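ok so I'm stuck.
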Amino acid sequence: MEDYVVRIIAKEANVRGLVCVTTALVNEAVRRHSAGPAAAIALGHSLTAAALLGASLKVQQRVAIKVEGNGPLRKLVAESDSYGRLRGYVAVPDVIAPDPSDLANTLGDSGLLTVVKDLRLKDLYEGVVPLQTGALDQNLTAYLLQSEQVPSIVEIGATMASTGEVAAAGGLLLQSLPNQTTNGLQSLAEQLDDLPPIEEMLHSGQRPEELLAALFVGIPYETLETFPLRFQCSCSWAWAEQALVLLDRSDLEILIEEGQAVVDCHFCHERYIFGREALEMLLEKLP
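replied:
not stuck anymore, here's the structure
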């Protein structure tokens, strides 16, 4: 199943919604970071959360999610844009947990959730809320209500296969339409409680469209958009060059003496290796 998101609106229920599957892009992140099972589950949750928020953005906008908890994972970061391009990392990819599937074991239940949005305005929008539980979807629900004043339901799930890969990852986001009652959202919350966890439904082969059909039984809705999701980092050779150009002249001269410099991207682990000649050319650019 390819990764994608479906955006819908149910006018009679006063609800808009998103459902996505992120299994392939999460596995790409897991591969790039050599993440163990516990970190893989954390990447599944964080990248899916970013995908859901990113799918709500307008053209050329971006969103970043950062969670810093008191658990051994310490920190996880995920970014998305309006085009479905995602990237992310965890601070401790080889973290060990008694139950890798329990995010609370690795993330902890105390800390901060930070959401930063680039809405193409003069300043970035930033919202920060304390972690209330070890479940990222519950914390994101609290953030949307407290910081954005939007009643919402978020459910995110990821499950591992015996092969060590993520077998299924995905999530949904339901929100009340502006200036409308939340009765429809509450009814859908009850219906959602009667369904299996979203990762189980995806693992069984159900697609986002089938999840929506199961959730909105008897409630008419309209599909507005379907578009793909993928792991894609924004780093480049030019980005790596800029990182080196920002060094002091003396630091760059030391690297030249050593013979090379390596710039490693935290998000995708792409390595940019600069030999002595390339470093000497950068040194000439310095004032």
